[in-house]
Inverse folding.
C-alpha cells in the first residue's frame, strides 16, 4: 500500500488560485433570461397569407420530394406518418394539408411490400376515405412481382375505390421484369401466364378510372420494349384510347406506341406485325 509521511492538505489549506479559472468561467457566462418577465409569443397568422403562398409552404412541409410514390409499406411510420400528423394542427389546416399531400404524391394501387401480401390484406387505396380518393391525381402499378404466383390482394373491384378517383389523369406503370423471355424457361409456369395476368389487370384498371388520359411506361434495363409483356400493355392502353408517355428510367421513344395505336384502331390489329414493321428496340 502506498503511504506518505506528509499529511494530506485539508480543503482550507488548498490554494485559492486552483479554482480561479472556474470562477472566471462562471462569471463570464451570460445570465439566463428570466421566464417571468418574458411575454408569451403569439401564433403566426398563417391563414392571413395568400392561398398561393400557403400552398407553397405546405408543399415544402408535406412533400419534400414531389411526385414520390406512396405505398403500403412497413416504413410508413418513418416516412409518411410524421407528415400526416400535420393534419391534426387544426381542422382548417388539415383540410388544406390533405389536398396538397394527396394531390402531389403518386399512390401505388397494389402493394409490393412482402409484409402486406396476405390474402386478406387490403390495398392502400381501399383504406383511404372517399374524400382523399377524389383529390388523387397520379397512380402507379408496379409489375414483375409474383410472376409464378401473383399476389392475392392484386384484385380490381369496387372496394378498391378507383371509380372515385375522378381527378386522376396519369397512371404510371413500371415493369421490374418480363418473365416471357427465354432466360426464364424452366422456371415459369407458362410463357403467356404472367403476360395475360398483367394485361387483364391493366385493362380493368383503365376501365375504372373515369378521367384518365395518360399512361406512362417505364422499366428496368432487362425489360425490352418489344417484349411480350410490354407489347400486351401497350395494346391494352391503345385499345382504350389512352395516350402513351415514357418514364425517365429508359427514355423510350414514341414510334412503337404510335404504331400499335394505329393498328389497334382498325377492325383487326396484330401487335406482332406492327412490331416487325417498326423494328425491334430495347
Amino acid at each position: 500500500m502506498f503511504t506518505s509521511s506528509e499529511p494530506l492538505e485539508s480543503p482550507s489549506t488548498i490554494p485559492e488560485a486552483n479554482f480561479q479559472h472556474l470562477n472566471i468561467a462562471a462569471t463570464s457566462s451570460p445570465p439566463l433570461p428570466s421566464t417571468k418577465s418574458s411575454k408569451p409569443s403569439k401564433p403566426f397568422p398563417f391563414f392571413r397569407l395568400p392561398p398561393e403562398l400557403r400552398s407553397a409552404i405546405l408543399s415544402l412541409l408535406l412533400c419534400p420530394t414531389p411526385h414520390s410514390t406512396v405505398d403500403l409499406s412497413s416504413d410508413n411510420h418513418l416516412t409518411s406518418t410524421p407528415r400526416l400528423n400535420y393534419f391534426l394542427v387544426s381542422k382548417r389546416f388539415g383540410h388544406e394539408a390533405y389536398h396538397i399531400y394527396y394531390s402531389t404524391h403518386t399512390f401505388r394501387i397494389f402493394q409490393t411490400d412482402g409484409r402486406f401480401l396476405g390474402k386478406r390484406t387490403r390495398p392502400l387505396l381501399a383504406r383511404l376515405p372517399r374524400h382523399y380518393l377524389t383529390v388523387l391525381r397520379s397512380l402507379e402499378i408496379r409489375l414483375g412481382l409474383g410472376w409464378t404466383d401473383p399476389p392475392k390482394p392484386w384484385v380490381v373491384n369496387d372496394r378498391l375505390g378507383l371509380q372515385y378517383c375522378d381527378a386522376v389523369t396519369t397512371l404510371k406503370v413500371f415493369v421490374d421484369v418480363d418473365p416471357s423471355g427465354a432466360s426464364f424457361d424452366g422456371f415459369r409456369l407458362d410463357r403467356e401466364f404472367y403476360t395475360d395476368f398483367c394485361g387483364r389487370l391493366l385493362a380493368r384498371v383503365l376501365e375504372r378510372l373515369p378521367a384518365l388520359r395518360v399512361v406512362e411506361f417505364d422499366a428496368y434495363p432487362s425489360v425490352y420494349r418489344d417484349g411480350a409483356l410490354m407489347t400486351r400493355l401497350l395494346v391494352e392502353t391503345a385499345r382504350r384510347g389512352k395516350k402513351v408517355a415514357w418514364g425517365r428510367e429508359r427514355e423510350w421513344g414514341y414510334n412503337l406506341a404510335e404504331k400499335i395505336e394505329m393498328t389497334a384502331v382498325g377492325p383487326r390489329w396484330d401487335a406482332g406485325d406492327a412490331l416487325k414493321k417498326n423494328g425491334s428496340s430495347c
Summary: The mean pLDDT is 80. The beta strands are 69-70, 106-108, 138-143, 170-175, 214-219, 243-246.
